[in-house]
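So, can you check this one?
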Amino acid sequence: MSMRSSIHRSNSVKKTLVPEISGPACDVTCIHPEAVAEARAVSIDRATATELSQIFQVMADPTRLRIISLLAGRELCVCDLASALEMTQSAVSHQLRVMRITKLVKCRREGRVAWYSLDDDHVEKLFLQGVSHIGHVTGGEMETAGDIDPE
């Protein structure tokens, strides 16, 4: 195979892996002032959008989502989490620290044991809504965190 055909072949593979994203768009510019005013009235402000974005960034990590699934409806210590995730306590503690900063989880110390739980029911609801959405778009049905395969 020549160098040129090798390069051409690798380029065609890349194109098939990354589909072009295009969608319907307006063919003309036409602003609807009432619709814009209504949309602005219900839109979140920049500060709220920034905070929400930070929460979603933290939740965008698969390991952190697995931690949330384990903590949904129960409290676990770091040792239990590390064992369930088949990770080191140090690695789990690092993830939990990031999650504590964004108030996704909270910690309760009992002697030398650190017990973790979800910060409030909103975190679990947000997680379960995401799982429900996945079930909706894939045609499956997932109702509770206990039914979720963490892999």
